[in-house]
Amino acid sequence: MKSLSLPMVKMIISMCIFGSIGFFSEHTGLPSLELVFVRCICATLFLSLCWVLSGQYKRERWSKREIAQILACGVFLVFNWVFLFKAFELMSITIAISIYHLAPVLVILIGSIVFKERLTLLAFLSIIICFIGTLLVIGLNSGTSFDELLSSGVVWALLAALFYAFTTLLGKGVSNMSAYAMTVLQTTLGIFILLPFVDFNAFEGVTASNWGAIVATGFIHTGFVYYLFFDSLRYLPTRIISALVFLDPAVAILLDTVFTGFRPTGMQIAGIVLIFGGMGFALVKPKVKETSGQERAI
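-> structure tokens emitted (298 positions)
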């Protein structure tokens, strides 16, 4: 347990910091696309430095297949960030982050379709529970139009969750290259993808306070958090990682209710509970039936 204490502390810090990203993004004064562009620049600089100083760049095993896979994954990651920040612009952090955390359940659902993975009873229940929870959080009714959904931020939050799920699924099988190399490639790609679309006029009138939030979002919420996350990931068992991941939305919701004054309705609270309850079901691994020594030998 002592050997896990430092990685666990790093994971806890990374999840708590990441949970505050929505709160900080509201104070940057930048639209979602421009904010992600700055985030990619900061993350590339910070993680490249960590990559070089750690000496990991000397030990990389480059593979054309993996590079192509990582870059394709990077496209989904960048759009995932853009959609998430767009959702933060249009709706409360609490609702946006709750919808965004449907991603693990979407991974199970898409995986069962694309990779023909067997859908367990718990996984099926988690999908149903999360679906009901999402309807309650969004507050859908028969008269809700697509334009109303778009302007409310719901569609952007759902797209962010979907693209995060695609990022997770596409990242499967990358084993030779380090997490540093992966992230540096992806954030560098993000700079070139977003550059043609960046409105540099958006940076005019940005105050010193705004720049403080922008720098924090770039270097702390992306660079430093990814360093802590990747540095602790390899040492922690899946069950601990799965539990600590819940710190991210917990911090986000706490900051939203305490500092921005958001008060969810009773129906939305029920929906949030169902979404995270469904996530809990999704993270439970089915018990493997014990077999006899003879059966195992066969």
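The chain has 15 helices and no strands.
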